[in-house]
Write a structure and sequence with these properties.
There is one protein chain. By secondary structure, this protein is mainly α. The chain has one domain (3-79): ACP-like (Non-ribosomal Peptide Synthetase Peptidyl Carrier Protein, Chain A, Orthogonal Bundle). The protein is 64% helix and 0% strand. It contains 5 helices and no strands. Helix 1 packs across helix 5. It is globular and about 30 Å long. The two termini are 13 Å apart.
Amino acid sequence: MNLNEISKITNEVLVEEFEVEEGLIIGKANFRETLDLDSLDYVDLVVFVEENFGVKLTAEDFQAVVTFDDFYNLIFIKINE
């Protein structure tokens, strides 16, 4: 799976499940500020990634995520480990 596929799937879910305006999801946009996630949202996000990409994310994984591009790259790296 390539980064374009990962971002497409992820963006669709963020718009649908997290009720984020599609226009706000930009690669260089701040991930946390744009999504305004609470701790339960992070759990939902981890479940989404596991169900859709077959990889498990930890709290430590999210520490390096600043932008949406960082998040897509994290999933890409985890898939290819």
